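Worked problem 6 (solution included).
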Amino acid sequence: MLKKIIVKVVKFSLFLSIGIILFWWAYRDQNIDEIVNALKNANFFWIGASLVFGFLSHLSRAMRWNLMLQPLGYNPRISNTLFAVFVMYLANIAFPRLGEVSRCGIMKRYEKVQLSQALGTVFIERIVDFILLVLLLAVVLIAQFQQIFAFLRDNVSHKFANIIVSSQSFIAVSIFGIVAVFLFIIFRKKLQATSLYRKIEDIFLDFIEGIKTIKTLENRTAFIAHSLFIYLMYFLMIYVCFFAFDFTSHLSAMVGLTVFVLASFGMVAPSPGGIGTWHIMAIGTLLIYQISESHAKAFAFAAHGSMTLFLIVAGFVSLILLPVTNKNTQKS
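Solution. The predicted structure is:
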């Protein structure tokens, strides 16, 4: 028991340290007064609108989760599901990936949903979210390839960009790929015996099973509609924040989509609430569109900070309201 606690404390400290270090690295040369001035001149109506879109995305996520639980014989109250979603985000801010278990635990306590079944629905949900994010990434890379490549060529490294497009590198990559395939065929049996191969295979098979499970949903249309709506709200959360600042108000919806998608991958990193990682990705993306570094940092600070603060407040309010709104249920 003590060993598990120590491991959890070490992991939490490690992840938190990663976030703090990356956040410090992103803002190490930033004049704080510039961020303060940008926030003073911000139009907080659009920040508020961003939070409304954020709330709608979380409400839709709760409704989508209910759709997944209903075929299992459960009919949870939407308030409990929504509170569980908010607690999930609060827990993830404290400790990456803790939120998924936390929200399933809440549903077990207040809606008597089996923990294993709840976790299964969360797994399917994450697969769907990941597929949508990858599809959006493909759209962004195709639509914004010239801007992204030009930025890499001019700012990251001339040499790196030239390597990407050189015919020699294409030949080298092709040869490497062919050799890798042959080596895999030759040593396939030995590779299949390794624990790493089995783990990757299990993940892939679970991924396929998760996709197949979607076909068994009774209300697939509503499930797909909620999934698309969630990502529409996520996009609008970022896009409307552009109008809060003079220096980003001219940016297009496609730029908003690009910032949203690329910054979302910063949330995948093991940093509490995407602290540091989200900021780096958002700032780097805005630099592609000639937004100054100081302005990009101010935008990232405001957009991420407002939503994080909202989720912290909503998470704690949910923890308070859960036992209050379920008082009669618990007695029965």
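Discussion: The CA atoms of residues 1 and 7 lie 10 Å apart.
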